[in-house]
């Protein structure tokens, strides 16, 4: 299977056979995402829109599990890798599905990569990427501050099942990262663009240079900052996503994606050695269709998430709260983020408020939800309503107390995914009302 397999058009085999070769090649060129533009929205817009089967403005959903062939020998050729989706030949939807492939092209355009493929969840994307890149007995260097599920995968599951070990380091200490990489054994440097939940910004260009000098692949989780940061344009090799979050935006879909070189993504779909193909975290084509309809307005949503996050964090600081947001000038990584982000999309939609203790954190969230009607106590992020959780006792609960301390996760750290419903002033009024009431009761700590 060729390396352009994942970026060419997934038209039906019947339609392909009825088109001229010239028409097919023209459409393929139109379907390929631009790898040269620095604006993710422009890259997404450069991907040719896939029409429905009867010319509808929306693409058709291909729900078939299995696909027909016109000639008996074609099936042998497909399993031998002689023909494939790049020529509109499909075998089985656990392998490639036309609708999922369309979403994957959009994700590749979003991240500026040659290819991508989408999976059933963010964790399946992370797991499949690591298992494809790292063999038994090999090593990973990872940020000490990552999502709790990722930490559990690296710290507990992979050592037990695959003899893959991980050294966790402060990703901001470039020298420590360099020292942790064991040349010849370390295969992946893994971190998040902006860490969950501490909002530490990774110096992607410098980390990539350090890793590449020692032949290490850089894998970046960009779930917190789609559109805002473009890791591969800064030197990273692979980008993983939980599409369930900002890309979906509706808190109603579980999905993931791996974005990288065509050779990597094709290897993950290999019939004999592919982690996605053989582990089977298959995305439902109906889900792929829904997500394909949401990506075109992701840029608009991210701008408003970021706009409100900056406005609220600035005003909350004036009320005396300890606010962590990389868009604030006093954040230790503000200048770094300012130098690497796509400025038209702001600084991201996540802020943190450190209340010091879990009791104070819980009181804050209770007031915000039940008194101010500002948001919901719930995990996850990227929803149009504000979602908030106390990270240490929820999404980072997989870490031990010592690991939380090393990661900088305070017991009272409240992570807030800022929504965009209503007007900014309306939502600020609700937020301010709850904070003032909390301060009057003596619970809100001062900065």
TrEMBL record:
GO cellular component: cytosol
Domain of life the protein comes from: Eukaryota
Pfam families per the UniProt record, alphabetical: Cys_Met_Meta_PP (PF01053)
Cross-referenced InterPro entries: Cys/Met-Metab_PyrdxlP-dep_enz (IPR000277), PyrdxlP-dep_Trfase (IPR015424), PyrdxlP-dep_Trfase_major (IPR015421), PyrdxlP-dep_Trfase_small (IPR015422)
Annotated keywords: Pyridoxal phosphate
Stored Gene3D superfamilies: Aspartate Aminotransferase, domain 1, Type I PLP-dependent aspartate aminotransferase-like (Major domain)
Entry keyword Cell cycle: no
Residue numbers spanned by region Disordered: 1-38
Gene Ontology BP terms: cellular response to sulfate starvation; cellular response to water deprivation; protein homotetramerization; transsulfuration
One MF annotation (Gene Ontology) recorded for this entry: methionine gamma-lyase activity
Basic and acidic residues: bias regions: 18-28
Cofactor: pyridoxal 5'-phosphate
Family in the record: Belongs to the trans-sulfuration enzymes family.
Protein name: Methionine gamma-lyase
Organism: Vicia faba
Lineage: Eukaryota, Viridiplantae, Streptophyta, Embryophyta, Tracheophyta
